[in-house]
């Protein structure tokens, strides 16, 4: 029987949700002669909405019971300066993945920028605890395999809500698995058998992400008639902006949020 380790959890989770999606099938589109309804149905692109809403409700329950209280406690216990150090350290750990995607996207200038940031912050910023490169005029940018697939022309597919992870789609889900399996930091941790370090990194990233979204998500939930639909729209706005940035296009203005309790790979 395969070992149940941090590196096997995400691929199994995503594969299970994709399998459920296939079993659930696609919702029946409106009649072809109803042009307005067809346009709306295509824009929403959420044929698995009943299943997605169920997973979303589960994520909301986990968030209210665990993730949000942890994020609030983290904000209360750790001052902004300390939270910035954690964020800079986590961003620095992502540098190999960002570099790989810069190269795969055919962006040599951004790849050099990422490499310089990693070398400078690791060597002089105490392993990345301090973003000295950013202070020196080399700004941070984030890239992931989902963005790379989009640059390559691969379509996003239908909207999909993953347990705990939050809003996604087949393209981003596959990209997330590729990152989890191919991240050099995770590969090293897995090789030396220090699974606790992988759990710690994932936990810190999740808490840091949720803390950064505390006020924004509270406001979205308070002002939305349908929180699920609002998060779906905002997720797509965010990914559209990130992909256009990767393509060198001007992003569409929009809020930069993910679902409550979602541990998406959004940059800070």
Overview of this protein structure:
It contains 13 helices and two strands. It has one domain. With 268 residues, the protein is an all-alpha fold. The relative contact order is 0.14. Strands 1-2 form a two-stranded antiparallel ribbon. The protein has helices at residues 6-24, 35-44, 49-77, 80-93, 95-104, 108-124, 132-135, 145-151, 170-182, 184-192, 195-212, 214-223, 227-246; strands at residues 160-162, 166-168. A hairpin with a 3-residue loop joins β1 (160-162) and β2. The radius of gyration is 19 Å and the shape is globular. Helices cover 67% and strands 2% of the residues.
Concise structural overview:
This protein is mostly helical and 268 residues long.
N/C terminus separation: 39 Å
Assembly category: single chain
Overall pLDDT: 85
Which segments are poorly predicted (pLDDT under 50) over 5 or more consecutive residues?
Answer: 252-268
Instruction: Output the radius of gyration.
Output: 19 Å
- Determine the structural class based on helices, strands and strand pairing: mainly alpha
Task: Give the proportion of residues in helices.
Answer: 55-70%
Features:
globular, 13 helices, 268 residues, mainly alpha
Topology of helices and strands:
Layout: H1 6-24, H2 35-44, H3 49-77, H4 80-93, H5 95-104, H6 108-124, H7 132-135, H8 145-151, E1 160-162, E2 166-168, H9 170-182, H10 184-192, H11 195-212, H12 214-223, H13 227-246
Antiparallel strand pairs: 1-2
Helix pairs in contact: 1-9, 3-11, 4-11, 5-6, 8-9, 8-13
């Amino acid at each position: 029987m395969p070992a149940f380790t941090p590196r096997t959890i995400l691929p199994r989770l995503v594969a299970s949700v994709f399998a459920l999606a296939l079993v659930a099938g696609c919702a029946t589109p409106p009649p072809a002669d109803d042009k307005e309804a067809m346009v709306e149905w295509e824009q929403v692109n959420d044929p698995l909405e009943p299943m997605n809403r169920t997973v979303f409700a589960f994520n909301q329950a986990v968030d209210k019971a665990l993730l949000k209280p942890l994020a609030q406690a983290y904000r209360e216990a750790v001052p902004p300066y300390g939270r910035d150090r954690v964020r800079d350290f986590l961003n620095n750990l992502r540098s190999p993945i960002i570099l790989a995607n810069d190269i795969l996207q055919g962006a040599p200038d951004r790849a050099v920028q990422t490499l310089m940031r990693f070398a400078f912050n690791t060597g002089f910023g105490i392993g990345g605890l301090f973003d000295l490169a950013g202070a020196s005029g080399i700004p941070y940018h984030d890239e992931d395999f989902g963005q790379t697939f989009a640059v390559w022309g691969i379509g996003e597919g239908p909207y999909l809500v993953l347990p705990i992870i939050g809003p996604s789609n087949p393209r981003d889900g596959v990209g997330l698995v590729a990152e989890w399996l191919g991240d050099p930091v995770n590969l090293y941790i897995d090789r030396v058998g220090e699974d606790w370090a992988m759990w710690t990194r994932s936990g810190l990233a999740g808490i840091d992400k949720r803390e950064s979204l505390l006020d924004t998500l509270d406001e979205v939930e308070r002002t939305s008639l349908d929180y699920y639909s609002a998060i779906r729209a905002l997720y797509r706005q965010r990914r559209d902006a990130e992909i256009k940035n990767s393509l060198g296009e001007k992003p569409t203005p929009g809020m930069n949020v993910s679902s409550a309790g979602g541990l998406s790979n959004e940059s800070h």
